């Protein structure tokens, strides 16, 4: 015992002590409930997969940021980089799944990123995806669930920004970018909110676009206003781009369907510069931003019709979104949007001395059987003051004292920890009395 | 899309499709509820730790079975081997935690074991531990929670086997084993149920014990009967071993305290051969076995007063147990001990055609707002038969049909999928009617 080992945790990884767990569990359960209310089914996949399962799928970033290693059996393995690629693998392995397949998955993923505020190497994603439907109704359902989830945990100010990959490609064509340049153009214009119009312009010119073309593109991505206004404006500017016009009409259908859900349509905006980092999107893309605090996007997703089918060998259209648990919790905490639920027990049962411990156990066992969260003191018996300090540090609101006096009369003393008030109660009235304190 | 990638999963790792998830989630939530009812608080730690955090702690097995690798920053890291060592690290990093600290942790751990039936490389542990108490009341509380958890999920036949490390060492001394031989002797006698008395005898003789000593030891570990009988018998045989007598009295105290909980004392038996594989136990040890199906132990734990303090640099007595989620689920499934909760939505809303989709969305959104789990059809509209087949494959019990006929009268058709019966209902009565079907 003399050799103390220095306890240390890896950078970018976190412990969640009980108080933060209360909020995490609350948010996760709220999301699960909403996902299930929409008829999404839970799916879980391994933390570790063949590295090649992830390679060449989601993005070039994934290649460098994945935790990869060779296991004892000589296999190249990797920690789950996201929850989307495993979904694709599962669909590929189960050709008989009823389609559309609506699944949710709430679990950690790992990325060897540079740790910084709000960015961790182990973080949780809450994913919902609709596999096997290319209907705009599926896109609308995903957009509706985003707002349901955020509202349910207390978000008030947020904007769901929407764009379409085919609007992006039409814009790139209009600006004279070659198909090879297109991906780089998307990346450049996606940085509009970070580097401003001038910054994007510079990047476009570096990519080889003419100053004229760059200006046309900047004009396109700078269109502002409500969804209708922006879409009509885009329609005029892209009138000779049939794919672009089709994408605009698709977004109109999606928004039109969305308006039948119980959501606030003012939260949904068309943002022509939105590209989303990942290369696999093929249709609508969307992300949710809040202005305060500045945490980046709290959800991201869209339609990707090519990825899921890679393992099945046929096209399987899919749309979905990921809600970022840690960022959502960061926002809730920073804006004080919710009081975290109390994590402690409802009642603390003291142990007067060794002779009374059997009675204390019986009292605790009885309260628990009635569904009351009860902590029994398990340290050395005696010193009521020490036990009260302990209960108070744990934030337990009610304390039961059952000494020889009380027990001789089949009574207990119930102490309100906030006011310090105490009263005697017959033992048999205790559970009902405690329950009444909450109602 | 022509290059189909072969979807494959690593051996010893599993996907959980929605139907198995329903049972897993039910068991996890039941355990969480019971842990919280006992006043245990949730704690979560990273999946990845410095490899040295685990090394030299739990067992020699851990060294070889841990998934270890060097990360991109040159750190030697390892996937979490158990939930106990991370608890010790957290306690070492937070000297101010109120003690006793009662925490629970339900999460996966990873071990590069040979995969076989009931043994996986990624599996979930449900751990409860009481840190900072050397009172027998803490041991009793852990023993009570085991039986509460197993009963709550439907277990009927199980035995919680109990022993004490100091009874084991007293027995080893009585049999003439040297302190160096002791650990090997424990391992040998722990295999009684696997290799039988003759097998253990052979192993003891190979370890260097005399045939006479081996026979005495076999006689000791073979004592059978209820807890009282076995303890009294042991007391006579170990009368000249003060440490052994003290351990026997400790077990008596624990069982005596335990009898004040709402548990069936007949499930708790003293098993003198029980050693538990891990080397870190110092006091009472226990595990739960079921005879059918033969899955090995479904819980394991005990008192370990030296491990947690390693990171704090002082002794921190701790007792706890781990419930093995997968084995518990294996037993529930094999014995048919519970009907897994239905995973599907309660109601399925069909989409008659594109002109009716807005109404279908409104119906679904309204039901969801009332808390009813509702799946909206998101495939290509039309073909009612196809949609009914889909709803039936998902196991959804009620289907709503809202075609132009129904909608013109502000009505819907509600179909009972089991009987095939259909009836018309006014739209505004729908949510209450559906709720009434469950009550």
What does this structure look like?
The structure is a homodimer of 439-residue chains. In chain A, the strands form three sheets. An eight-stranded mixed sheet of chain A has the order 1-5-6-11-10-9-7-8. The first copy, chain A, has a five-stranded mixed sheet with strand order 13-12-14-15-16. Chain A has a three-stranded antiparallel sheet with strand order 2-4-3. Chain A is elongated. In chain A, helix 6 (165-174) crosses helix 7 (179-190), helix 6 runs antiparallel to helix 11 and helix 7 (179-190) packs antiparallel against helix 8. Chain A has helices at residues 18-37, 51-54, 60-65, 84-93, 136-152, 165-174, 179-190, 192-206, 211-221, 227-237, 242-258, 325-334, 357-369, 384-393, 404-408, 430-438, and strands at 41-42, 48-50, 68-70, 76-79, 101-110, 122-131, 159-164, 268-270, 284-289, 297-303, 318-324, 347-349, 374-376, 398-401, 411-416, 422-426. Chain A has 16 helices and 16 strands. In chain A, a hairpin with a 5-residue loop joins strand 3 and strand 4 (76-79). The model of chain A has no long low-confidence stretch (mean pLDDT 93). The first copy, chain A, is 41% helix and 19% strand. The first copy, chain A, has two domains: 18-334, Bira Bifunctional Protein, Domain 2 (BirA Bifunctional Protein, domain 2); 347-433, 3-Layer(aba) Sandwich (Rossmann fold). At the A-B interface, helix 1, strand 1, strand 2, helix 4 and strand 5 of A face helix 1, strand 1, strand 2, helix 4 and strand 5 of B. Chains A, B: Its EC number is 6.1.1.21. Chains A, B: L-histidine binds at residues 82-84, 111, 125, 129, 276, 280-281.
């Amino acid at each position: 015992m003399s050799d103390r080992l220095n306890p240390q945790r890896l950078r970018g990884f976190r412990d969640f002590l009980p108080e933060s767990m209360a909020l995490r569990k609350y948010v996760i359960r709220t999301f699960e409930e909403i996902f299930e209310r929409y008829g999404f089914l839970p799916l879980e996949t391994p933390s570790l997969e063949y590295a090649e399962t992830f390679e060449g799928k989601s993005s070039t970033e994934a290649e460098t940021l994945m935790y990869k290693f060779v296991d004892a059996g000589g296999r190249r393995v990797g920690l789950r980089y996201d929850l989307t690629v495993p979904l694709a693998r599962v669909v590929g392995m189960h050709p008989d799944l009823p389609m559309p397949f609506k699944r949710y998955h709430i679990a950690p993923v790992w990325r060897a990123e540079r740790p910084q505020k709000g960015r961790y190497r182990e973080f949780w994603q809450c994913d919902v995806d609709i596999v096997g439907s290319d209907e705009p109704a599926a896109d609308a359902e995903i957009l509706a669930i985003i707002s349901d989830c955020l509202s349910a945990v207390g978000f008030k100010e947020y904007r769901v920004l929407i764009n379409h990959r085919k609007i992006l490609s039409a814009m790139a064509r209009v600006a004279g970018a070659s198909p090879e340049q297109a991906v780089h153009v998307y990346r450049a214009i996606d940085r509009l909110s970070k580097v401003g119009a001038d910054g994007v312009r510079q990047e476009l010119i570096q990519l080889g676009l003419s100053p004229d073309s760059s200006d046309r593109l900047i004009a396109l991505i700078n269109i502002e206003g409500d969804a209708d206004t922006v879409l009509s404006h885009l329609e005029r500017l892209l009138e000779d781009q049939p794919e672009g016009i089709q994408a605009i009409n698709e977004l109109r259908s999606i928004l039109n369907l969305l308006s039948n859900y119980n959501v606030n349509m003012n939260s949904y905006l068309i943002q022509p510069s939105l590209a989303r980092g990942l290369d696999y999107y093929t249709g609508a893309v969307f992300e949710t931003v809040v202005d305060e605090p500045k945490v980046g996007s709290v959800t991201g997703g869209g339609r990707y019709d090519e990825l899921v089918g890679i393992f099945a060998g046929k096209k399987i259209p899919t749309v979905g979104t990921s809600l970022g648990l840690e960022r959502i919790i960061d926002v809730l905490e920073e804006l004080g949007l919710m009081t975290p639920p109390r994590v402690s027990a409802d009642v603390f049962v003291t142990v007067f001395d060794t002779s009374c411990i059997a009675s204390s156990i019986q009292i605790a066992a009885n309260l628990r059987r009635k569904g009351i969260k009860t902590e029994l003191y398990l340290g050395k018996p005696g010193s009521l003051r020490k036990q009260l300090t302990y209960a108070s540090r744990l934030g337990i609101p009610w304390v039961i004292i059952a000494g020889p006096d009380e027990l001789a009369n089949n009574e207990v003393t119930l102490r309100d920890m906030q006011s310090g008030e105490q009263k005697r109660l017959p033992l048999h009235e205790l559970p009902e009395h405690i329950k009444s304190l909450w109602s």
